[in-house]
Amino acid sequence: MTVAAKTSAGWADKRTPEEIAELRETVRRRLVLELGERWVETDPCVLDTYSWQYIAEAATGSQYMPRALAIALPADAEQVAAVVRLCNELGVQYKAMSTGFGMWNSPIEPDKVVQIDLRRLDRIIKIDAKNMYAIVEPYVTGNQLQTEAMKLGLNTHIAGCGAQCSVLASATSMMGQGLDGVSMGFSNRNLLGFEWVMPGGEIVRVGSFGDAGDYFAGDGPGPSVRGVIRGFAGALGGLGVFTRCAVKLYPWSGPKQLDLEGGSPNFFARIPRHHTAAVVVVKDWKSLAELGYRIGEAEIADYLGRNAPSLMAGVLTVDNAEAAEVYKIPMLHELYYALVVVMTAASTEEMNYKRSALREIVRGLGGGALSNDFSPAGIQDFLRFLKVVSARLGTRAFLRSMPSFLGLVLRDARRYGMAKAPMALTSLLYQSLLRSGMNMRGVFRFAGTFWTAMGSLVTWDNAIRGARVGAQIKRKYIDQGVIVDDGGDNAWGGLYEGGTFSHLEELAMYDQTDPEAGDRVAEYVAETNLACVDYHCGDSLNAVGPPFHRMFSPACMDYDKYTYRIKTTFDPQNAADATMFTDPAFAPDARLEARMQAVLADRAKVSIDTSHAGAPVRVLAPLH
Fold it and tell me: What is the pTM of this model?
């Protein structure tokens, strides 16, 4: 992409190409003095590999974000601080990334930002088994930390973005909900102490480090600094760089290493003796709300969440052709009112109690369960499962499902052997929830990309209500051919901390190579954000960035005024690129204005709980 091409998307850059080249060379030369020749890169091809990002088309209209001035790869906090100080001195911005997932990692304007790639900071510094915490650097993934923690009888929260993503990034700088949240909370609730290169280049170590030389506690006396640096959504790189953090760990009642057979993508995980994996179904949304609350209050689940039928089809299969066939099975297609559950235990007695508690809850709601419990009671639960699904489908559609359902069993028999075939589905559920290794398999494969919406951190019944609102808005865009027809309902999420919090986000998959689709999906996101305010569904996952703050902030005590004050106090030079956080210089451009006008001119009709609708939203209201 050329500078001219980028500026055509809405950025005005008055510098000449020669001036940009001169600045790039100055930055490169100075970075080399700090890091060495090997760890600085300005080659256009390399810059473009960093520019290629998930949902870049929402910002630029293509799959590429704007090019950075240079790529810097520091080795430790001191080198990170040196890069930050250099950027302040030269009057250029910087943006840090760890494992990298999405446009939030990249500059929003071309040739103005040094990209700080933290991949060399990739160590698990410490796992304290007695006090149950770990200290990690930015490039440690959920998979790596969980693998090492399990050897010590511990487990770690993994965010919904998947086991391949950075533990530190989710804990310090970004949202971090996942299906283990019922027992392990979410990322920002698990953050303890941390090492922070502040926007001006000072290194501070927050929490217990000053007194004990370690990071086991996140706060000392007085207000929580954790709330300042990240809040709910995180600053997305707009408030300095985090180079080390401690996170809570949790007890693990399982083997030191999972017993896996097969090869990618068809692994068979042997479920440990005292563990249970189940799909629980009930008859309607009201029952699903009650099911979540009761399981959360009983404190029996380690993993609990909802995967919409289309997502389950993605996880159960290895390619789109197979997924399309599986999604046609009426029995699967109609699993709307279902939760997936994993329960772990240290003994037979403990698991028997958990199974009996779950059974009582499910049967009390007229539901059933498909699980790896092959006892007489477990078989009864499965028959109840079939009864609930049959009642929703009708006898004829239910019977039509059986040949295809048996076909899945035969498929698994060919893969794993006849003896393992009855356990293949629950095995897949178990490893999917436990390792979070197949999250992206369920969404990226269908169309190449997706964007999500709704997903507020609210009560469970409100999360369900939000998913229902989002599905109705989404139907409009499906009917217009903008996004993949996944049945409208594609809500993913669950309950956290025993049901104290919850969220369901409404995913939308689309063709990223179609410029019109990218723009229209951005309209979908904007429309669902407006609906979150109108129908009191809470702050969306997309309530980030200046354009969307202008929708939510007036309805939420003008929170972005405080975010702006934090930013300008800690970073008066705006050295950390904050365009995904709170940009002091933000002004809506013509493209954004046109997008919002299109949304306002043709909003979807929503027919749920309209008696609680709020006043019209103040779109793009002034903030400062």
Answer: 0.91
